[in-house]
Amino acid sequence: MADARPIVAITMGDPAGNGPEITVKALTDPSLYDRCRPLVVGDAKMIEQATGFVQHPEVRVRAVSRVEEARFEAGTIDVYHLDLIEDASAFKLGEVSVEGGNAAFQSVKKTIELALAGEVDATVTNALNKEAMNLALAPQGLHFDGHTEIYATYTHTKKYAMMLAHHDFRVVHVSTHCSLREACARVKTPRVLEVIRLGWQACRDLGIENPKVAVAGLNPHAGENGLFGTEEIDEIIPAIQLAQAEGIDAVGPCPPDTVFSQLHGGWYDIVVCMYHDQGHIPTKLLGFVYDREEKGWKAVEGVNVTLGLPIIRTSVDHGTGFDLVGKGTSNELSLVNAIDYALRMAAGRQSKK
Fold first, then answer.
1. Which of 100, 111, 193, 260 has its CA 20 to 30 A from that of 119?
2. Topology of 161-307 in CATH?
3. What are the boundaries of each domain within the chain?
4. DSSP secondary structure code for residue 261 in this structure
5. How many C-beta neighbours within 10 Å does residue 350 have?
6. Which alpha helices (DSSP H) does the chain contain, by range?
7. What is the reported pTM?
């Protein structure tokens, strides 16, 4: 009988960071193997090292060179071994390095290849360090702002967007990694309409039958009818009207200082944001919980999803944790959430087939 559990490829992230540790922590939960077949892509030596950091020496790390070799059994972590780190014992943790940046990039590239070939059903990424990666790529004349751009390039995707989610709190961005001045210039009707469509479809993929999409304004009070800027009148409202004509339940432009409270209250299924921080700040305010008394992070939750791709990609919504590496204290909740989001999207796509 065929195994119905989706195969999920998980990149190890930058090996100098806490990606290997939170991966081991997440995969020590036997119930995860009831939901999916996880396959780590990276260097088995670094995952083996991480089992000691998180005090799970009983976990077996098994290197494989093909997906078919993986056993997907609780208690064993299957690693698609790329042999990226020459000497794990000598590799410097918590530091930017060409070796670490290359390892992170090669892990992502191989994961994309596996998904495009249909060997895995979804992909989940741990954090990489952009400086380290681009130091490694510079001799090749390559540069990427982050995971989103890597996925878009290697899947030949032109229309894509970043969605952040904290459970049912979802935001999707018109622009992300650019200056605020450039972000304002990118608020144009075709792009706003494109992101409305992508956000609406993502909610459909998650099983929401008739998603309600709120579109945030760019300016204070959504421009106040042109008093504080005309981008809403000139660019955003026409995009909303075009989306509505397609049957999308889109509303706005909504004042940015209130729309996220409404989203949190269940008024909408997703909010289209005009720039990076407009969407990231409220999402991380909910997902990143710092305990003042304990002086530590009580929760680091959130999922980053790239929309518009031919394959499924979700990610943790935090950095590489260079300051935490080796301590075994890093929180794996964001990775678990990313895996579960990937599974929901895989199920949605499967049901459509």
1. 100
2. Isopropylmalate Dehydrogenase (3.40.718)
3. 1-157+309-353, 161-307
4. H
5. 11
6. 19-27, 32-35, 44-53, 98-116, 130-137, 147-154, 180-185, 189-205, 231, 237-245, 256-264, 276-287, 333-352
7. 0.90
Q: What are phi and psi of 274, to 5 degrees?
A: -85, -20
Query: Could you read off the pLDDT of 277-316 as tens digits, one per residue?
Result: 999 999 999 988 888 988 887 877 889 999 999 999 999 9
CB count within 10 Å of CB 33 equals 16
DSSP state for residue 255 in the 8-state scheme? P
Contacts of 279 (CB under 8 A, 6+ apart): 164, 171, 172, 173, 271, 273
Q: Which of 3.40.50.300, 3.40.50.2000, 3.40.718.10, 3.40.190.10 is the CATH number of 1-157+309-353?
A: 3.40.718.10
- The Cα 164–Cα 31 span in angstroms is 25
Are 17 and 322 in contact by the 8 Å Cβ rule? The answer is: yes
Average pLDDT over residues 124-137: 96
Band (pLDDT 50/70/90 cuts) for residue 317 is confident
Same fold, 1-157+309-353 and 161-307: yes
